[in-house]
Amino acid sequence: xxxxxxxxxxxxxxxxxxxxxxxxxxxxxxxxxxxxxxxxxxxxxxxxxxxxxxxxxxxxxxxxxxxxxxxxxxxxxxxxxxxxxxxxxxxxxxxxxxxxxxxxxxxxxxxxxxxxxxxxxxxxxxxxxxxxxxxxxxxxxxxxxxxxxxxxxxxxxxxxxxxxxxxxxxxxxxxxxxxxxxxxxxxxxxxxxxxxxxxxxxxxxxxxxxxxxxxxxxxxxxxxxxxxxxxxxxxxxxxxx
Amino acid sequence: xxxxxxxxxxxxxxxxxxxxxxxxxxxxxxxxxxxxxxxxxxxxxxxxxxxxxxxxxxxxxxxxxxxxxxxxxxxxxxxxxxxxxxxxxxxxxxxxxxxxxxxxxxxxxxxxxxxxxxxxxxxxxxxxxxxxxxxxxxxxxxxxxxxxxxxxxxxxxxxxxxxxxxxxxxxxxxxxxxxxxxxxxxxxxxxxxxxxxxxxxxxxxxxxxxxxxxxxxxxxxxxxxxxxxxxxxxxxxxxxxxxxxxxxxxxxxxxxxxxxxxxxxxxxxxxxxxxxxxxxxxxxxxxxxxxxxxxxxxxxxxxxxxxxxxxxxxxxxxxxxxxxxxxxxxxxxxxxxxxxxxxxxxxxxxxxxx
Lengths: 241, 354
Ligand SMILES: Nc1ncnc2c1ncn2[C@@H]1O[C@H](COP(=O)(O)OP(=O)(O)O)[C@@H](O)[C@H]1O
Ligand SMILES: [Mg+2]
What we know:
The complex is a heterodimer.
Chain A: E1 2-11, E2 14-24, E3 29-33, H1 40-48, E4 55-60, E5 63-64, H2 70-76, E6 78-80, H3 93-104, H4 112-125, H5 141-154, E7 159-163, H6 171-188, E8 191-195, E9 208-213, E10 216-221, H7 223-228, H8 230-235
Parallel strand pairs in A: 3-8, 3-9, 6-7, 7-8
Antiparallel strand pairs in A: 1-2, 1-4, 4-5, 9-10
Helix pairs in contact in A: 3-4, 3-5, 4-5
Chain B: E1 2-7, E2 10-15, E3 18-23, H1 30-40, H2 42-52, H3 57-84, H4 91-109, H5 113-131, H6 134-137, H7 140-160, H8 162-165, H9 183-210, H10 212-222, H11 224-229, H12 234-260, H13 265-268, H14 271-284, H15 289-310, H16 314-328, H17 332-340
Antiparallel strand pairs in B: 1-2, 2-3
Helix pairs in contact in B: 3-9, 3-10, 3-12, 3-14, 3-15, 4-5, 4-7, 4-12, 5-12, 9-10, 14-15, 15-16
The complex binds adenosine-5'-diphosphate and magnesium ion (MG).
């Protein structure tokens, strides 16, 4: 489904993503881990179109999308969340999802009632229905993350890119988020790339883990294999994996 | 062809194979009727004010016309800020383009004001189209700097090619729009004419902002990257918005040229005029076209009042007053209205669990 071929992204002197190749099949859920500054977010940005690579190709569903704009990729079915939630702060939770639905439809072929019903469905899925009238900027970080997920899901993606859904959450909240992601993946038949800083949270939710360090892929395998990988342990030196 | 069919509480108009239905609701008529009466009574109000305060009728009317000129620039600017997500610091550049186009075309080719109107719109839009890639490649301070430079460049050109652009003396001999011989009558007519242009601008801006297109513009204004992730082709919205609204600003220049009978670039390309425009936009309220009209009138009146009362200090006093207003009304005049009707802007949905 997604084929990233030898991409390289430089920022001035830094090579944030260095000759990375990953192939992801339809229906897979892949964890992407690495220490801070490993280039995980940059890779997500390269796939979702917010950055363009200096070298290499990105192929999605058989189509070369390396130079396509983000909106095009969104239309083709790539949705994402942002590491720092980017919601429209002055709108309610409901409107944030509603806008996504209406925009995705080009604002046509959909009455406000239908769109609202759909928005409510996606909010309910993440347990945000009671909070629908709260301004997005007044939500706690946990609910912001959930709202970002429900907004991304409302775009009916084929490939969902999650950039650190757990950062800043307490263990109970993190557990809940990981349950929800597992559930939506099954229910919507999604392919997911799930970026996290630490592997422990992903352990039970994903089947495959890719580890990055200094822009390079240093391990690719099952969670158990990766957590025992010598290179990964070295990369996380002094830190919990 | 056209057939009226009155029904109870409704008027159905059959015209050109189409059916228009107009719901007649007298309870909504009060405000428009008051508005129209006030509007028609403006000359009387002005004469009344001039009896009480020592300001001449003509300068009062020209103040109102100046307010309308401000509106002609700030309404498109407001739409542009929403649709591009960027604040243009060179709106007076586009107005000056319109002014120069009208003045040069009528002076050199003898075109009438009717002909220079579309020409200045088209030329303003054309220049904006050439410049429109800046709405894609630059943002933040870079966009501000680029747009801020445009009026200075035009100013330099106006001095450099002063045989063509007339530099400080301007381009005289531009045919004026109205000339009946009666100065009072003329200025009242100019006021109404400029006001009609403002109403048209308001009408179009309102239609655009309420349309599907306006909806997408609003999302771009909030967060361009989020808009892209919703599948909106932001370039396809930003470029036409920038182009057409800049063309609309050029119409302000057209009006200026044919109102004063000349166009003097250096008078309008000044930073002080830019500051007035930006203050009007900000005091109006973020993205509020109606608030902007109110603030244009407030600012033009304050400018006139400070001019007659403070003499040389007037500009300083004016800006101090405006800064104080900005401090006390961070959301502008529209914010006052909006606070009163807070709920309306956050529609909620009642759900019954089945
Ligand atoms: N827009 C940018 N400009 C300059 N450097 C950047 C930019 N984005 C990321 N980087 C650099 O690229 C490297 C990888 O960053 P990032 O992808 O955010 O890491 P991660 O998400 O794995 O923590 C870092 O060294 C960071 O400083
Ligand atoms: Mg990151």
